[in-house]
Amino acid sequence: MGIKKILAAAVTAGMLLSFTPAVSMADSTGWIKDGEFWRYYTYEDGYVTYDWKKIDGKWYFFTYEGYMVSGADNVKIEDKFYDFKSNGECTNPEGKSKLPQGWNRIVYSFGYSAITRKYEKNSGWVYADKNGDLYKGWHFIGGSWYYFDEYSGIMYSCSGRYAGPKWIDGCNYWFKESGEMVTGWYYGGGYWRYAASDGVLFESRWLKDDGKSYYFDWDGRMLCNAANYKINGKYYSFDSSGACINPEGSDEIIAQGWYKKAFGPNSYSWYYMGEDGKHCTGWQKIDGKWYFFRGDGSMTTGILQTENGDYCFKDNGEMVTGWYKYQSFDSKYWIYAGSNGKVYKDRWLNSGGKWYYFTSWWMMVSDVKNYTIDGIDYNFDSSGVCTNPNAKAKKITGWCEKPTRYGYVTGSNEPRWIYYWYYYDKDGNMYTDKWLNSGGKWYYFDVEGCMASGGSFYIESDNKVYDFDSNGVCLNPYNGREPNLS
């Protein structure tokens, strides 16, 4: 569940008193495995975060999130560099204030990447002079220009985590993955670009090369496959190679049938001009297919939500009917639309004698167990078929694991149903805002009934922070600790 604040106003002082047992036991302390990472817990301070800890005579360092650093050399902490074995032991706890002359790769931070959905070491290249001091700013090395961050000394590169042009002293530049400054033509960041001999990128600027004219937008991207792109009051079109096909420009856009209006490289909208010379808007049937055009005349793609129902349109604008693999950002899932185009949501479908169900965001439910619909738990196989369509409501008691949300987890590139643990009393009532002692271990369930796990939870009514391992066991159930309000 991660770090989460639980507002438990409903937990009364009396409930907390009744929760404290007559005979106390020692609260947990020591190493705790959290997924693929190790953390260290102390009764006095909770999880060790962004600090050193000497354990059994060996030194370890923990990130801001409380994860042990391991398997990395030249990790920069404050103003020194440290090396760590794969088991997390620091081999030079005194640290290095200087690096060897030449190129060195350092680790400057740790964090969760929204791109890879993994917890990663953020590293970069630096260059040390003969005194061990890091290069800053512009430097000419081995026949090429490089730029090193004025603060950290990290070499600039326009690829990887921080892709894109680099703004230096009022101009944008492009650097290869190796750090070399680009001049002339270069394909980077998914677009062709052009840099002058001094490295400054062409932006909002024309280039005439080998008798052909090219244009680069505000971000230095060459236009291609674009029609009716407006530049200084005139419209220009560009072929797939980026060459302008009407370098003299036009005062008018295409005004008959379908036409595409470009707003930038690979950024455009389709429009349809009617016989009356006006943009079509609203629902239109064209060549036997249904389309919907917004108020400005642009063609709709993706999901359209209306008061009369939701509709889906393909990338070419055609309204969807029947089964369709829909892409939402970086996720793909099956949806279904009736013959009238309305997309199923919060609704069952019987297709070919098999039952399917669609969520409130139109997604077909699949590969999940104990999915609750109207108080009844159903199971669905990987193809979306419900394997127990005749299930009946039944009273649940004790522990129960249920799918609560759909999304990504650390280390996975595919979304899936994510399960949480719940607990029901003998009458089938779910534990919410409540503690549970099970097998001599204490657990806590939030206002929605989800078991707290894998982090620190603040319970407002007690004004205390409690810590839980990844299995939900409270590590300091008898006293908690004071919240850090700084």
Which short descriptors sum up this protein?
37 strands; 486 residues; two-stranded antiparallel ribbon; flat; mainly beta; three-stranded antiparallel β-sheet; disordered N terminus; single chain; 44% strand
Descriptive account of the structure:
The protein is mainly β and 486 residues long. It is 1% helix and 44% strand. It has a three-stranded antiparallel beta sheet with strand order 1-2-3, with no helix packed on it. It has a two-stranded antiparallel sheet with strand order 4-5. Strand 36 (455-459) and strand 37 (464-468) form a beta hairpin. The radius of gyration is 30 Å and the shape is flat. The two termini are 24 Å apart. Mean pLDDT is 87; it is low at 1-26.
Compact description:
The chain has 486 residues and is mostly beta strands. 1% of the residues lie in helices and 44% in strands.
Shape: flat
Report strand order across the widest sheet: 1-2-3
Rg on CA atoms, Å: 30 Å
Please indicate the percent range of residues in DSSP E strands (runs of 2 or more).
Answer: 35-45%
Number of strands: 37
Roughly what is the average pLDDT, rounded to an integer?
A: 87
Question: Could you name the ranges where pLDDT drops below 50 across 5 or more consecutive residues?
Answer: 1-26
The rounded distance between the terminal residues' Cα atoms is: 24 Å
The percentage helix is under 10%
Biggest sheet details? 3 strands, antiparallel
**Structural class assignment:** mainly beta
Number of helices: 1
